[in-house]
Design goal:
With about 160 residues, the chain is mainly α. It has two domains: about 80 residues, Orthogonal Bundle (Hypothetical Protein Yqey, Chain: A, domain1); about 60 residues. Helices cover about 75% and strands about 0% of the residues.
């Protein structure tokens, strides 16, 4: 079931349960997905829907930091609850071993494409693009910072 369809079903459940916080969060997510689909003028793919949810989570995390700095812990807690709800629609975060496997596949592919020459630190951008494509193909969710650090460490090895 696509993310948007699952959210639609959960909105109905939240309405029946009279769960206002969950309902407003799900409506916000549905609105973001619908807005992007209208901008694209086509249906969203699962990868695009996941990317939108990841962006929403990132925004919420920034809000949590701001609320904590502003001494508003109750609002920070509300944002954390929204993050947990949104994360429920995304695939599980990849483990360190899975990330390492993706990075290794990407470097192996670049080595083959370069005629057996192992890429170095200067090939960071290319390696990141290939690693991101592999992670999407494997259906894994990897935080960009984690992936970047792992690619940098692997490229530094000679």
């Amino acid at each position: 079931m696509a993310i948007a369809q699952k959210i639609d079903a959960d909105i109905i459940v939240a309405m029946k349960a009279k769960d206002e916080h969950k309902l407003t969060t799900l409506r916000m997510v549905k609105s973001a997905l619908k807005s992007k689909a209208i901008d694209k003028r086509a249906e969203l793919t699962d990868a695009e829907e996941s990317q939108i949810l990841t962006t929403l989570i990132k925004q919420r995390k920034e809000s949590v930091e701001s609320f904590l700095k502003g001494n508003r812990p109750e609002l920070a807690q509300k944002e954390r609850q929204e993050i947990a709800m949104i994360e429920g629609y995304l695939p599980q975060m990849a483990t360190e071993e899975q990330v390492r496997a993706v990075v290794q596949k990407a470097i192996d592919q670049l080595t083959q494409n370069a005629g057996g020459v192992r890429p170095g630190p200067k090939d960071m951008g290319t390696a990141m693009k290939v690693a991101q494509q592999w992670s999407l193909a494997d259906g894994l969710r990897i935080e960009g910072k984690t992936l970047s650090e792992m690619v940098k460490a692997e490229l530094a090895k000679q």
